[in-house]
Design a protein that fits this description.
It is globular, with a radius of gyration of 20 Å. The longest helix is centred in the middle third of the chain and has 12 residues, at 95-106. The chain is α+β, with helices and mostly antiparallel strands. A 7-stranded mixed barrel has the order 7-8-12-11-10-14-13. A 4-stranded mixed sheet has the order 5-3-4-6. It folds into 2 domains: 16-106, no CATH class; 128-224, no CATH class. 17% of the residues lie in helices and 32% in strands. Bound molecules: zinc ion.
Length: 232
């Protein structure tokens, strides 16, 4: 169901701005040809034998989940792409990945694994906050919470690979939580194949996965709140 046409607020337009200089810098390296990763683990793409990581505006390619890749994923999962090794063009291999490959050969180490995540503590009280749809543009969904939740959401972080669920299906990824306005805004990158569902949503909170986290809460997931099916 399409949303009614409306003017995008300046706040929303801010999120849609594309970084032109960065785009220009990546030119001349060869066209980016993203492919589906061989697998995903908690949302993070995992490489197949012939695949490498590239950054949307980067000049390197990566053969492992190195610190550079991990940092980029934390900053903005959308900027991290997977491509075939044969399509890296003029991009150069990341020095950290080079070091990693040498170390791996030396120790005959097996495949590089993501750090296992600790089991989270039980959810904090008031762990579910209702959300309403503010707009959808260019695959970005904007959901607002009531201002009574602002203080709680100010203490909430968005960790990497935080999912948006519709009917239990993963339809997108939460990329940002903005508490600068009275009604805090959750920004969600929709999966390109997902069909947008208008209606109520909710955000589920939990304790952060990292003990060193700066904020006491983190977003567990955002979900479409299913309407109750009438009994047959
Ligand atoms: Zn690397």
């Amino acid at each position: 169901m399409p949303l009614p046409k409306r003017q995008l607020s300046p706040l929303i337009r801010k999120y849609l701005r594309v970084s032109r200089p960065a785009q220009a810098a990546a030119r001349g390296l060869g066209e980016l040809k993203p492919v589906e990763p061989a697998a995903r683990r908690e949302g993070a793409p995992l490489l197949g034998d012939d695949q490498v990581y590239v950054m949307k505006y980067g000049t390197d390619f990566h053969t492992a989940w190195c610190q550079v890749v991990a940092d980029n994923w934390d900053r903005g999962p959308r900027g991290l792409l997977v491509t075939l090794f044969v399509d890296v063009g003029a991009r150069t291999r990341c020095t950290e990945c080079n070091r990693h490959a040498k170390a791996a050969r030396a120790s005959a180490a097996q495949e590089y694994h993501l750090q296992p995540r600790p089991t989270p503590d039980p959810a904090p009280p008031d762990a579910v906050i209702p959300l309403k749809v503010m707009g959808l543009a260019h695959g970005i969904l904007f959901l607002a919470a009531g201002q009574e939740y602002r203080e709680r959401l100010k203490e909430t972080a968005v960790e990497r690979a935080t999912p948006l669920y519709v009917d239990g299906r993963r339809d997108g990824m939460v990329v940002r939580l903005d508490c600068a306005r009275d009604e805090p805004l959750l920004v969600v990158q929709m999966d390109p194949r997902a069909t947008f569902r208008n209606g109520p949503y909710q955000v589920r909170l939990r304790h952060p996965l990292r003990r060193s986290a700066a904020k006491p809460y983190a977003v567990e997931s955002v979900e479409s709140v299913e309407s109750v099916e009438p009994a047959p």
